[in-house]
Amino acid sequence: MAIRVLLVDDQPLLRTGFRMILEAEQDLAVVGEAGDGLQALDQVRALQPDVVLMDIRMPRMDGVEATRQITGPGRDGPAKVLVLTTFDLDEYVVEALRAGASGFLLKDAPADELVQAIRVVAGGEAMLAPSITRRLLDKYAGHLPSGEEKVPDTLDTLTEREVEVLKLVARGLSNAEIAADLFVSETTVKTHVGHVLTKLGLRDRVQAAVYAYESGLVRPGSQ
């Protein structure tokens, strides 16, 4: 089954370019396009895509609010959202990740990276390099409003080892790096990460990283 992709960008020329790239792949199918967030919501309901390539800055409704509505609670099998941005340190990217996006990609990324990103996100993984996670959160987590003033108490549900793993995820370490740091196997790390996501009700390791910063478990700039 081909991965069904919806293109959302207010620039028709960019949508055409993305379509040409994606339709050259046998396992990808562009099922529709939208020029703003409101159109995206209609298209998601009508077309049921697997992945939405979502621009951030658009008229009528921006990509952050559209992402929030597409991936929010109560959605029946929500599509995965991969955010597209012109700037690698766009403050709106963090807001989109909070809203439920599975990752982000620069608009000028090579074609093979775009294709791979869609496959990764469709498979349920997060598409955000650890180094970029760290840069984004260090730059913005202490400055953007979280929308939740109270510090979450759900950290109490985690074991000491799960808290350790969450801190390392937030600091941008891969599973292999966490395994080396804690002297355990990668399989064990994957198990711990899975438990953290389940207990905290999070979608992926990107949202886990955001949570760690917003809960105060990890502070911007900390080592």
Structure description:
This protein is an alpha/beta fold and 223 residues long. Helix content is 48%, strand content 13%. It has ten helices and five strands, in the order βαβαβαβαβαααααα. The protein has helices at residues 12-22, 37-47, 63-71, 91-99, 111-122, 130-140, 160-170, 175-182, 186-200, 205-214; strands at 3-8, 28-34, 51-55, 80-85, 103-106. Strands 2-1-3-4-5 form a five-stranded parallel β-sheet, sandwiched between helices. Helix 4 links the parallel strand 4 (80-85) and strand 5 (103-106). The model has no long low-confidence stretch (mean pLDDT 83).
What structural class should be given to the helix and strand makeup? alpha/beta
Placed side by side, the strands forming the largest sheet appear as 2-1-3-4-5
Shape: globular
Contiguous uncertain segments of 5+ residues: none
Radius of gyration: 17 Å
Distance between the termini: 43 Å
- Count all strands and give the number: 5
Largest sheet: 5 strands, parallel
Number of helices: 10
Strand percent estimate = 5-15%
Domain Response regulatory: 4-122
Protein name: LuxR family transcriptional regulator
Keywords: DNA-binding, Phosphoprotein, Transcription, Transcription regulation
Organism: Streptomyces varsoviensis
